[in-house]
Amino acid sequence: MDNLDYGIIGNCRSAALISKTGSIDWCCLPEFDSPSVFAKLLDEKIGGSFEINVDDSYEITQKYEQYTSILITSFKSGSDHFEIHDFMPRYRKEEKKYHSPPELVRYFKYISGKPRFSVLYDPKLEYAMGKTETFIKKDFIASLTHDVKFDTVFLYTSFDKESVVNSAEVELNQDEFMLMGYNEKLLLPTTERAYLELQNTKVYWLNWSNLTPTYKKYNEEISRSA
Fold first, then answer.
1. Phi/psi at 24 (nearest 5 deg)?
2. Which residues of 116-146 are buried (b: 16+ CB within 10 A; e: fewer)?
3. Strands (E), 65-132
């Protein structure tokens, strides 16, 4: 564990750690204290990760959407440019009740050009103590293990599922999404619904930050920690 320079996303139910290159190297679902889905942070060989891989010509930068817990990773090579907006949905549904599902969303925002990348989707359930198998289904990609105990996660995406599973290079020419969740969805996710989840989550965090007092010193650091 030589590097702890990670961004964090969460929804008060669980959290994920994301590297400077956009790799999810730690995530537990459905709760903070659940067994890991990705644990490359602890073991690079078998821990599992969710990576976005580009060639060396790309400049990769990272920032938070201001006053939110939405992490934006930018990939740019000349005119080829896209962003990934990573978040875990959370927003108010009704008085004192919140939508906070055990899932994370990767929203791919197309900026310009013909950006190309590949995805390494490599979940290793139950702390990678047993074999995790991944299967392509009609509406999602299912990953499961039953060596230690039965566990599963589901990946919904607008990308070609074969390309995702096989880490094939893809070209981005419009907004796309990936949603990894602990439960199978009754209402199938779409790019439009993922965008709505992003905006609802953004509003939640902006309202939360607005309730935080401001300080003359270290205000930015205090606001980020809140």
1. -80, 105
2. bbbbebbbbbbbbeeebeeeeeeebbebbbe
3. 71-77, 80-87, 91-94, 97-99, 103-112, 116-122
Query: What's the one-letter identity of residue 88?
Result: M
pLDDT, one tens digit per residue, over 35-90 is: 999 999 999 999 999 999 999 999 999 999 999 999 999 999 999 999 999 999 99
Q: How far is CA 74 from CA 136, 178, 224, in A?
A: 29, 16, 20
Sign of CA dihedral 145, 149, 150, 153: negative
Report yes or no: 22 and 115 within 8 Å, Cβ to Cβ: no
What's the half-sphere exposure (Cβ side, CA atoms, 13 Å) at 192?
Answer: 2
Helix, strand, coil shares, percent, the chain, to 5:
15, 40, 45
